[in-house]
Amino acid sequence: MANGISLGKAFGIPLRLHYSWFIVFALVTWALTVGYFPHAHPHWDMKTTILAGILTSLLFFGSVLVHELAHSIVAQAAGIKIHSITLFIFGGVSQMTEEPKQPQVEFRMALAGPATSLVIGGTFLVIYFYFANIPEFVKAISFWLGWINLVLAGFNLIPGFPLDGGRVLRSLLWWRSGELLKATRTASNIGRGVGYLFIFAGIGLIFYGSWINGLWLAFIGWFLENAAATSYRQLALLDMLKGHTVSELMTTECPTVPPQLNIERLVHEQILTSGRRCFPVMDRDRVVGLVTIHDVKSVPREQWANRTVADVMTPVQKLKSVSPDDDLTTVLRILTEHNINQVLVIKNGNLLGMVARDSLLTFIGVRSELGT
Ligand SMILES: [Zn+2]
Fold first, then answer.
1. Going from the N-terminus, what domains does the chain have, and what CATH number goes with each?
2. Are 262 and 291 a contacting pair, CB within 8 Å?
3. From ligand 1's centre to the CA of 69, what distance in Å?
4. Is 316 left (phi over 0), alpha (psi -120 to 50) or beta?
5. Is 106 considered catalytic here?
6. pTM over 0.90
7. What is the 3-state secondary structure (H, E, C) of 298-341?
8. What would the pLDDT profile of 14-69 be if each residue is shown by its tens digit?
9. Burial of 97 (0-12, 13-18, 19+ CB in 10 A)
10. What are phi and psi of 314, to 5 degrees?
11. Separation of 152 CA from ligand 1 center, angstroms?
12. Residue 352 — φ and ψ, nearest 5°?
């Protein structure tokens, strides 16, 4: 979700438009301008129809944004930091920096979105049904926005994770049993089932000739199935790593190199003989950085004799490190967030070892193969 346009901030939360959003904005605007409004209001001239289409589409995505803001505001009130809210091709998503730690919080957070959509939809329908003297244009827009927000609330309340309804279901199961992983498995299995149902219904619609709606439904189904399976896998992974510490996995014997060593000698005397890809750089008894094969490759071969380790290494200030007592989930988070292959293990300023991505993957692989 990194690619996109910033829309500024609301309640301290950055709002963003992902590039894929423009596709769904164009689709909705097109459906309203070419399909819905000319049919519902045939006597409108073209300018009015187009204006209504664009305005309604914008207000619809505005409603989606408010729905997401509702989730985020409740989360923030519970102390969960929200990274950003992004509108993308399948609607809106609030990116949390962490998952809720209590089921009660998740319950409130998940319900806040659909509840807000219900209120927005209800308000538009009140405008439509109870205000007689407003212009037809406003009435027409209010009618469509009223129903679509009710549909949005209803759709999101489907009890399949990671839809809001699935989160509500998970929080209730979690609340009752105290077992987050099991609750997530049930809710995401329902989510995957709903995803498959959408895919089949979409294929059915395509056979009945409604291929745009069919394709769209199948596409949403595929996205849901995928998201449900991925969220469960991620949680299962964290659960597997929880309770295991860095000291169980770190390599303690790591040959170090001095900063003034030139690249030529680093390659021939260290990398080629040891087969290691990465070396802590030590100046006397202090860690000053880390040099990897990747750094070496950035230097043209003919300069190997004139450049030193100090020229190409990542300095210690920029390195990520963990302590031997840290949880392995911390290591996984650091490796993924910064897209790096190893972290140094440092305690009281002393280098104790390293944890590499490879050994973490082996650890995970062996455990999932044994099913423990
Ligand atoms: Zn929601």
1. 4-241 (no CATH), 246-370 (3.10.580.10)
2. no
3. 9
4. alpha
5. no
6. no
7. CCCHHHCCCCEHHHHCEEHHHCCEECCCCEHHHHHHHHHHHCCC
8. 899 999 899 989 999 999 999 899 988 889 899 999 999 999 999 999 999 999 99
9. exposed
10. -85, 120
11. 9
12. -100, -25
